[in-house]
Fold:
Amino acid sequence: MCGGHPGRHEFANASAGVLFNRTAAVGLTNAYGSLSAGSQYTAMYDTLIKYDPMVFGQQYTWMPTTGSVDGFSFKARVNNSVKYVGRFGGLTATADYSFGGSADSFQSSAAYGGALDYDMGSFAAAVAYDYRNGAINSTGMWTKSRNWSASAREQLGDVTLMGGYEHYLFNPTKGKSVSSALWFGGVRYLIAPQFLATLDTRVHDEPADLLRWTGDAWMGGEAARAPLPISSYEVLDAIVARLADRKLFPNLRHVVFAGHSGGGQVVQRYAVAARNIAALTGEGIDVRYVVASPSTYAYFDAQRPNAQGIAAPFDAAQCSDFNQWKYGMDNRPPYLDDRTPAQLEATYAARRIDYLVGGADDDPQQSALDRTCAAEAQGPQRVARAEAYYRYIQSRHPDGLKQSFHIVPGVGHNGARMLTSVCALAAMFDTQGCEQ
Structure:
């Protein structure tokens, strides 16, 4: 059930005095949930990361302070653990048990925990519990710690309010205890462009000078229908230019372009086409792209995946439009027609890009899936198309590619679950948990 990427196998660097200090688990998933075993993140970590205003940003989050009154401290990951995750409508139930690391004592360094997380859409709330034993000492005793928390978040338009309470109790001996309590809270604000179609402006009373596109032409960087022929990618360029202004954002260090489904299509094509990214990188700002579950991808030549998912020359007799932009490089819009496919590919291959797709997003009849012949030339459904495209780009750039691919287990075509998954958070915020 671990997410991974084809054609790439690696060991994590040793850290924290442990040779293999990364997640590694195997398991099974069915309609009743998932059961996994290995070195894994705890129920408390998996739950609270959704309510941390800084998403476990190492310099700012409250989570690493849990238990900081002693050397025991909160550990997000445990070894030799068994974990269950079940989803029942809006409720996610998680439980874990770690057998510790001592062959002669199941209690030495053992740990267990659980969480209930209820997501109603705009509102969500969760409770979590975590219990740990320390390593057994020469007297046959061990330390103990207990954490419990309650948290909530509320979506108000583009603003998300989140906060909660965490309580920590540490027992170094039977007769002593240390406790701490922490209230936390924060606000997130979403900044995103809104691309309107001509239909939107007919239905709603919008200003005449508001840009609008024909249908979903904005996804591929086409020019606006009115009032001026401005590419949707020029709109993104304008946002880039503003973010690069050090007078406005003197402390900005990272910019992430992230999108799911249709948004994922925009991000992937903008990574191909973007002109103005040097304005950010020239200021020392890290730029990355998170492409989650798009219907299709932009290929750089006339190859498409064969029945085995391997790129091979495509028979245009099957679909004469298979290589038209936004599926390929033919008839590109003016915004990117000033560069050759080879130039576009060289720039694209140098970008940091994380491709994500849900493991259950494999329905060839899913309602939002592009089923045109140009799309079908890339594979029958999103998982197959994602795997094939990443294999394609890897084969063309076997060395030095700063791109990765992860399948998120058990997730279908669901933007909220994809973009709050461990791998999406790792891609956007450098959190832990997606090292596979």
Notes: Residues 1-17, 64-73 have pLDDT under 50 and may be disordered.
